């Protein structure tokens, strides 16, 4: 079996991926920007649990490559450490340590020294929950009784005046979703109120004040009175059910007999669900039944598509 080539993304592409993810775009939408499969995007996001990695930056106090090249040239012509320090406006001890940790006066190379300094800087501070197993145990016990990280952080602050036994809710979330920290077991994720493999705050998904609402809707109060008592057969209600693993199915219920029809849909977007449902409605209409009354108890893509003028009136509860 031929193995698929691995997909790589540049740093600028990864930055765009995280920008779009933070802006609330779905994984499939981000993948369309690069004309690639969404699984490659999923891999990048899942590596850190949907939490954007902190961008690495050099300290303004650290030596830069230009200064290291100046040191290398000065050593080649035999200049003293104090003379080099004076030219670079650095302390002689700084120049001395730089030379000694990178091969000495005879073997010092600017590029190698700069890369070595960048590599040595990768010494992340241990997570507070890793440093304090007792604190991690307290957090785990509260998670198991379905306390939210916000509740746990607030309880710790009130119960333990000692800062050593206090932790922010963000640290708890990061320890759960970034398993590389080794602080909290992955099994504790199932106790969160929102079962997600990756972290995504509500702030990121609320793009507008009308997010989650269907625009230009028709109120359920405007439904004809003849429909209310379910006495007349032929009136239908529609809804969209979303399941696990990105699966969804539409339902059509005849209000008089409670007869249910299931409609397979290709996606939960209003175009996919609306087109599939309207095809079923057309089949019903061709059987000399009244035009169905398709409403929804939730603002899903199905009711929005039907309401938006595809030929069947939609009413919302």
Automatic annotation (TrEMBL):
Any one GO MF annotation of this record: transposase activity
InterPro entries hit by this protein: IS30-like_HTH, Transposase-Integrase, Transposase_IS30-like
Recorded GO CC terms: cytosol
Key words, A-Z: DNA recombination
A Pfam match: HTH_38
GO biological process: DNA recombination; transposition
Official protein name in the record: Integrase catalytic subunit
Taxonomic source organism: Pseudomonas knackmussii (strain DSM 6978 / CCUG 54928 / LMG 23759 / B13)
